[in-house]
Amino acid sequence: MLEVEKVSSGYGMVQILWDVSFRINAKEIVSIIGPNGAGKTTLVKTIVGLLPSKNGSIRFKGEEIGKLPPYEIVKKGVNMIPEGREIFPRMTVEENLRLGAYVIADKNKVKDSKERVYQIFPVLKKKEKLLAQNLSGGEQQMLVIGRSLMANPELLILDEPSLGLAPIIVEKVLDTLTKINEDGVTILLVEQNIRDSLSIADRGYVLEEGKILIEGKGRELLSNDHIKEVYLGI
Amino acid sequence: MVLAIKESIANTFGFVKNEVVGFSRSRMFYYVLAALAIAAVVPLFTSSYVLSEVLTPMVIFTIYASSWNLLASSGQGSLGHAAFLGIGGFASALLVIKLGIPPIIGLFVGSVFSAVIGLLIGLTCVRLKAWFLGMVTFGFSVIAVTIISQFDAVTGGIMGFRTPLIVERGLPFYYLTFVFAVISVFAIHLIMRSKLGLAFRAIHGNELEAKMNGVNTAKYRLIAFVLSTFFAGLAGGLYAQSIQYIQISIFEPYYSFLPLMICVIGGLGTLEGPIIGSVIIVAIDRYLPGIDSALQFLKPLFPNVSFVGPPLRMLFLGLFLIVIVVFAPKGLTAFIRRAYAYFRGKLVTVKEQ
Question: Which of A151-160, B18-27, B251-260 has the lowest mean pLDDT?
Fold first, then answer.
């Protein structure tokens, strides 16, 4: 579904990614793990068009998207939840969701996806008229995921969704992602939380110093010697 | 009961947990009706000085500040909005004088002209962040005044010229501006309620998140800029009529900072903020010189100080602005809402969500 081929990228003169290649097949959960500063966020920002790729190609469903602006990429069906899960605090829960469907012109479709999101997260329905700033941390995370589902994405990219959440909530979030995946949404999970993210991933890639170092099946990677030694400290 | 007291205290001190601070929708409707009725009836009982020097500017600056507020609602700021006030004023008057079109159409075309200039400026600079846009707009207001003063064959240069009137001064003109203000504020209300407004608020809230939700941020920032300059131009056209004379002083930085002051005092990003702010700023502006005579008795104590109007007025305006920013940083609107919630909180139990 997504093919990233030999992509280099960075900020201005500073190159961070060096010939990164990986692929995501339809309906998969793929996890990209790596330490702080490995270039994980740079990679997702490049995929969704926030940063220009210096060379290489990014194809979504066979179509080159490397040069498209972010809003065009959202229209194609790729949605990214940036690090820090920021909601719009001064908007109501319902308005937050409506914003998520911004690229969809058909009002009935928007209504349908809203119903779907409320089915997944009933608490959002209960609080739909409240300003989003009144939600708890976990509820805000639900709102962010719900909002990204509003655009009916085929590929959902999450940058560090577990950051700053209590373990029990992380578990809930991952559960939800698995459910969303079963509904047919392909998921790219970019995480520092290696054990949790690899446990739900079909496949995983290890990104270090801007290069893909290891590739493998999700749970198998957990028993990889390098990962055990460097990340899990076993 | 205990909860209600807790909640009302929380509201007063700003630790608002649930959204109970605002007026309810149905009540809001009656407040709007009451405000409209006051604005429509009061002029019938005032002197012609108060009508043309106090009430009319209040209404015109409401349009002007609302235009600035619309821009601010999309996360952008202008420090040179006087340029568009002036362009609207000059264009609408010049079109009537040079082309002989009816003044009411001149007013509309002048506003469109201001929006077109806004589009051109916007195309070059809406990608700029925060203060950089402010500086560019300020720079443009300086350029605009230079151009207008140099093309004196057309613009009357530094001297300016008399503006042709749409309707007679006094009550008819007041009601004309009143109608335009109601239409403008209502139009801005509808814009902010629409999908367009949702995009503006998203950009204002968090540009990265807005982009990730598929909002073409550059496009919507430009739309906000153009809409804002349209209403600023409309305010300019009306202002030129209200003082019956237009000259380059309309481009002064004072007029650029005026909408900023009005919005901060009234309440940035609220519909009623510019209205409340305009009423207060114009009232201070017009009535404060009266303090001079009241302070005459102090004169023997300070033989070297003259109690002239403008400096004292500006001093008070400055102090007032500081007090507002320190004690009611969200403007008087938020202050009033909080006070309202406080007194209501005493009567009604606020349910915990």
Answer: B18-27
Residue type, position A227, single letter = I
Residue B116 pLDDT > 50: yes
Tell me, yes or no, whether B33 and B52 share the same domain: no
pLDDT for B37 beyond 50? yes
For the beta carbon of residue A165, count every other beta carbon within 10 angstroms. Answer: 19
DSSP annotation string for B156-176? -TTT-EEPPPSS-TTHHHHHH
Give the CA count within 13 Å in the CB-facing half-sphere of B105.
7
For the entire predicted model, the pTM comes to 0.86
Considering only the beta carbons, identify the residue of B198, B214, B216 that sits closest to A151: B214
Is the separation of the CB atoms in B276 and B267 below 8 Å? yes
Chain A residues whose beta carbon lies within 8 Å of the beta carbon of residue B202? 88, 91, 99, 102
Percent of chain B with pLDDT over 90: 51
**Contact between chains at B213 and A74 (C-beta distance less than 8 A):** yes
**Minimal CA–CA distance to A19: which of A76, A70, A57, A69?**
A57
**Domains in chain A and their CATH numbers?**
2-230 (3.40.50.300)
CB contact under 8 A, A86 and B216: no
Residues of B in contact with A86 (CB under 8 A): 206, 208-209
Q: Are residues B114 and B29 part of one domain?
A: no
Chain A residue numbers touching B205 (CB-CB < 8 A): 88-91
Residue A146: φ, ψ to 5°: -60, -45
Answer yes or no: do A130 and B19 touch at CB < 8 A.
yes
Interface size between A and B, measured as CB pairs under 8 A: 74
How many angstroms separate the CA of residue A204 from the nearest CA in chain B? 24
In the predicted model, is pLDDT for residue B317 greater than 90? no
- Residue B158 is assigned to a structural domain of this protein: yes
pLDDT at B291 (0 to 100): 67
**Chain B partners within 8 Å of A151 (Cβ):** 213-214
